[in-house]
User: Fold this.
Amino acid sequence: MAKASNLGFPRIGAHRELKRAVEGYWKGDLSKEELIESAQALRESHWTEQQDLGLDVVPSNDFSYYDQVLDTCAMVGAVPERFPWDGERVDLDTYFAMARGLQEKDLEGEDSGVQAMEMTKWFDTNYHYIVPEFSRDTNFSLSSTKVIDEYKEAKEHGIDTRPVIIGPVSFLLLGKTQEDNLDALDLLDDLLPVYAEVLQELAAAGADAVQLDEPNLVFDLSDEERAAFTKAYEALADAADLDLHVATYFGGLEDNLPTALDLPVDVLHLDLVRGAGQLEDALDYGVPEDLSLSLGLIDGRNVWRADLDALLDTVETAVDALGSDRVLVGPSCSLLHVPVDLDTEPALDDDMKLWLAFAKQKIEEIVALTERANGDVDGTEALFEKSRNAQTARAESDWINDTSVQGRVDGIDGSMTERNSPHAQRRPIQRDALDLPTLPTTTIGSFPQTNDVRKMRAKYKKEEISKAEYEEFIEEQIADTIAAQEEIGLDVLVHGESERGDMVEYFGRQLNGFLFTENGWVQSYGSRCVRPPIIAGDVSRPEPMTVRWLSYANDQTDKPVKGMLTGPVTMLQWSFVRDDQPRAETCRQIALAIRDEVVDLEDAGVQAIQIDEPAFREGLPLRESQWDDYLEWAVECFRLASCGVQDETQIHTHMCYSEFNDIIEAIADMDADVISVEASRSKMELLDSFDEFDYPNEIGPGVYDIHSPRVPSVEEMEDLIHKALEVLDTEQMWVNPDCGLKTRRWVEVKPSLENMVQAAENVREPAAVA
Assistant:
């Protein structure tokens, strides 16, 4: 019989229970024991719910207090030397310190601390993982038994799970080496014994199988990297008496397919959503007789109800070729990337809910597909009929289609994606218009969202206060934020975004074509959760979105105030996107809506406008052969949004946690006047790509890591500025934090920004003399 399986379940809880517990522990409101109890309750409920839904294979160790790659660092003892650790077991406080850094007081009372590990995007998703750090001195050892403990915990509740671990080769490839001439794969021989020990302990605990996630198998790989996969699994195949299930996802295996099929493992998982057609490729190549295939058919990264009739054909193809006992049915990837349960969602009407499936509903689809493949027609027909109705309803919906939007996209021409003059001519005009000094200082946009701000927003949403009362409160917040920035001494101010929650949701709620949820939360990083909008129809802007607040902010100061917008590519990437038309078409619609807002801001006297694109690199396909098409329409959409202004108006963009080396020419083609980027955690490593390319426009490399609560010193930021100036010209560089400050507290932000401004002044003064 075919088996219904899952690769991973959302860990945060349907109502963000984990977020509240973890943050409660960080704040000191919860004890460690209370945090652990909350986590145990969540795990038990998730295991039980999945089993009750009919899954044959329920995952464990898909839970994490922060991040699954960080969990793996703890498991193998890959703890950087700067963190206090006794070399035995990685406890919870060491674990959180690795993710968040440490701030302490030295004997003289001066600020000191330990910098957090670097964080970056998990492949092409909006999830962030902690980047492992490796050196020749890294000594791997079994330092966390979390995976074994959670397997035993589930078993005590009567549920025999399949533990999930990041595979050894992907773990190394996801990390960074701290020394020249050290390849992470050079450490594979040292790492494999720890994995073997984990497998042995799992087998001793009664596990029948373990899932080893090897998503790097969908990348362009060298012969040496392919050989590492073969070497690793030949070593692990006989390490313990349990089945090895290797999971690949986020793309097709393509030229890595022979390597994957020939691994000495028991099950290979294929993502048949992002890698459509690779089942046929695998069958044509020849699936070894002792290998089963796991079919990733239900989309683990989007929220649309599946076309079960179409997917059943794929399952039956696999069953006919392999036999039902060698077929597993599952999601394309872990369900970490979708909300938990549509049944808890009150914000959508029943007609639109019919179109959607969250994690729980996706498991229902997996089970129905499996049971239908196993011959159960009557028991599955209701869900199959629901699937058919959803496909018909979407196709026939008048709400989705707007002919005026479609016509406007058809009318786009080349002149709409060009500024009036090149940047070299625009730069002096803008510097004069904005009265900017050398090394101008600014922030990325948001300032701390206090409890008062969140409470007032909630009251307004619940209609407990009037619109006039709410707007008066927001005006007070903007005025206070402007005054604070003037006191700090920043050169280009922002209004603070106190009226905004999520940077995508805020704009999406003012655009046609978007749907919104109340409980559709997904994890972005650590305890940070986002509620992605659902782009279901044609997108347009019915009225201005930010002009009212930016105009008010402008009136509060003589300094320039930068308007803040979310860019079209990021709006696309950080939403659940309609799957009934090309993504590029949807992005062009969003770009036209943002363009209208940019022009209105300029007309209102806003001279600097930032169009944030932190997801630009994230959207890049994992295979280089697919890059050109994406970059062509992504750059076009940014320029479409930004090029409707005069030379005097300075266009900024912001990108965070992105590797630019391989797409730096496309970044330059965006033609933003100023780009700000994350750089502090990587110690300006990112700027190598700008140096090698000789980037022509202006850059603000982040010198203040806002993802950590510690306050960086003046000297620390001054050193980063000097390091950046080894690559950048003085007239080219801006000084700013890594990202927005919404998640931080004023008690951290104010001294950090004061130190940043002082660092800029210290560097600026001798530069001016020279």
Residues 29 and 537 are 43 Å apart (CA to CA). The mean pLDDT is 94.
